[in-house]
Each structure stands twice: as structure tokens, then as C-alpha cells.
Amino acid sequence: AIKHQRSVAIFSLEMSKEQLVQRLLSMDAGIDQQRLRTGWIEDDEWERIVFAMGTLSEANIWIDDTAGISTVEMRSKARRLQAEHGIDLIIVDYLQLMQSMSGSGKRNENRVQEISEISRNLKGLARELNVPVLALA
Q1: Is the Cα torsion angle 52, 57, 60, 61 positive or negative in sign?
Q2: Are 77 and 70 in contact (CB under 8 A)?
Q3: Which residue has better confidence, 86 or 111?
Q4: Which of 14, 18, 42, 117 is catalytic?
Q5: DSSP class of residue 130?
Q6: What is the pLDDT of residues 66-90, one digit of tens each?
Q7: Residue at 119 is within a domain
Q8: 14: annotated active-site residue
Q9: How many structural domains comprise the chain?
Q10: Which pLDDT band, with edges at 50, 70 and 90, does 107 fall under?
Q11: Is residue 69 part of a domain?
């Protein structure tokens, strides 16, 4: 997203927004995530951190860390992001933590069927918005 100036929506069910931003900052600055978290930063690394923070703040990345988000909620949020900002990629981390609702509004009894339904819904979202959806499992 940053290097190619693309707009990305990330639905993170596994990590909080803060954890994900810290990971992105660590990667962009080239600093070990544990050292960044604990504050054991060398003087020369602060410049890289500040530069990475500036780069990340200007990136078109939207992070939603709603726990247990359903495909219906995700579709609604993705549509809004597409309409307001135009997104080039949707990332879902982590597929098995998503909730899917059957037509009656009840959770499916069979988890395999539920994951299949979630996958179909994500494929439908990709087609509707004409955007690739990368679902991590």
C-alpha cells in the first residue's frame, strides 16, 4: 500500500489496531518489534521511526479491528470506504474469527458450512466492489 500508493482496507480480527500499527511501523522503520514495544531504541533509530511514522500517517490504509465482525457488517463498511475513498485491496485477518449469519439470523451449526458461507460472501464482496479480497486463515 505504501510503496505502490494503493488504498487498503484491513479488517483485523486477530490483532488490535494499535498492535497492527506497531507492526507496520516496526517493518517500515526496520526496527525489531520487541525493542519498539519496550522502548529500547538507539539514538540513530529515532530518525527512522519518525520517518516511518510520517510515511504511515500519509498512507491510505484503513484498519477496522471490530471483534467478531460479520460479513454483513464488513460489506457495509467496505462499501462505505469504497464510495468515500476508493479502495484497491481488502485484507481480512483472520477468516476463522469472522461471524456469519444464516438467512434466519442464527449461527450455522456446522463450522465448515459457516466458513464456506463466509468465503462465498467475501467472494461476492470482491465482485461487487471489483476489488481483490485477501483472506488470511
Answers
A1: positive
A2: no
A3: 86
A4: 14
A5: T
A6: 998 999 999 999 999 999 999 999 9
A7: yes
A8: yes
A9: 2
A10: low
A11: yes
Q: Clarify whether residues 51 and 83 are in a common domain.
A: no
Here the cell at position 81 is 470506504
Boundaries of domain holding 43: 16-60
- C-alpha cell recorded at residue 55: 510515511
Mean pLDDT within 18-34: 94
Statement to judge: residues 67 and 132 lie in one domain: yes
CA distance 8 to 2: 9
Reference 111, options 80, 81, 89, 137; nearest CA is 137
Residue whose C-alpha cell reads 505502490 in the numeric block: 4
Report the b/e string of 4-31 with b at 16+ CB within 10 A. eeebbbbbbbebeeeebbeebbbebbeb
**DSSP strands (E only) in the chain:** 8-12, 61-64, 89-93, 133-136
Domain co-membership, 55 together with 110: no
Q: For the chain, give me the number of helices (H) and strands (E)?
A: 5, 4
> Is residue 27 scored above 60 in pLDDT?
yes
